[in-house]
Amino acid sequence: MEISKSLIEEIKTIILQGREQAIRDVDHALVLIYWNIGRRIFEEEQEGKDRAEYGSFLIKSLSQALQPEFGSGFSYRQLNWYRQFYRRFPIVSALRTEFSWMHYKILLSIDNEEKREFYMLEAAKNSWTARQLERQINSQLYERLLLSNDKENVLAVARGEKAPSNPLEIIKDPMVLEFLGLKREEIYYEKDLEAAIITYLHDFLLELGNGFSFVAR
Fold first, then answer.
1. For position 24, what pLDDT does the model report?
2. Which of 40, 46, 141, 179 has the most CB atoms around it within 10 Å of its CB?
3. Which residues does 130 contact at the CB level (< 8 Å), separation at least 6?
4. For position 156, what pLDDT does the model report?
5. Is the pLDDT of residue 168 over 60?
6. 3-state secondary structure the chain
7. Is the CB of residue 119 less than 8 Å from the CB of residue 110?
8. pLDDT digits over 49-77, tens only?
9. 19-50: per-residue pLDDT in tens?
10. CA angle 189, 192, 197 (to 5 degrees)
11. The pLDDT value given to residue 196
């Protein structure tokens, strides 16, 4: 007597979904741990008379006490991240359950509040992994949207909903090219841009020294 393949597939799905949920639960539990650590460090720091000096002493002392038992996640640098995390996201109920600590760590690198909020909303809406979030930030999605007249198309490309049909959907416009020695107010042909880029690359390769060469233009 054989069991149906559909039953097997259904149970496999239950297992995989359960595993994914367990991972999300663990990730969120870690986020709460780090948030609470940051909160306690901040509160204790406010009790110090010379806050800047005491804050550095406090984190260093905590790291020396915690790291031998709990590992590198409690180094001086990591504890600083947790403190910054609490200061940037002080309302615990506003923390997103779908975000891992890596999501928040990437978001902490964004100083502009509107820009950070934009990436938070997009990451939540599109279920971006931390790596996908980082890729969108590195591709300057927010800046391209500000400069674009067709924001919906730029967003659709970023979300993977459509393939880019126009170079302006993936290339910054306007481009700032002062590093090539080209002035913004001047008009240049394509060959001028090509020559300037090649010269820049030539000088860069020569600067690297032995083992690097520029074969031809």
1. 84
2. 141
3. 100, 102, 103, 106
4. 65
5. no
6. CCCCHHHHHHHHHHHHHHHHHHHHHHHHHHHHHHHHHHHHHHHHHHCCCCHHHHHHHHHHHHHHHHHHHHCHHHCHHHHHHHHHHHHHCCCHHHCCCCCCHHHHHHHHCCCCHHHHHHHHHHHHHHCCCHHHHHHHHHCCHHHHHHHCCCHHHHHHHHCCCCCCCCHHHCCCCCCCCHHHCCCCCCCCCHHHHHHHHHHHHHHHHHHHCCCCCCCCC
7. yes
8. 566 678 788 899 999 999 999 998 899 99
9. 888 888 889 999 999 999 999 999 888 875 56
10. 130
11. 79
Q: What is the CA radius of gyration of the chain?
A: 25
The continuous run of DSSP H or E covering 82 comes out as helix 76-88
Query: In whole angstroms, what is the distance from residue 118 CA to residue 94 CA?
Result: 15
Q: Are 147 and 173 in contact (CB under 8 A)?
A: yes
Domain layout of the chain by residue ranges = 1-95, 178-208
CB-based burial label for 107 (10 Å; 0-12, 13-18, 19+): buried
Between residues 155 and 195, the one the model is more confident about = 195
65 three-class SS: helix
Interatomic CA distance for residues 178 and 152, integer angstroms: 30
Collect all residues with Cβ–Cβ distance below 8 Å to 198 and sequence separation of at least 6: 217
Cβ 103 vs Cβ 35: under 8 Å: no
Neighbours of 25 (CB within 10 A): 11
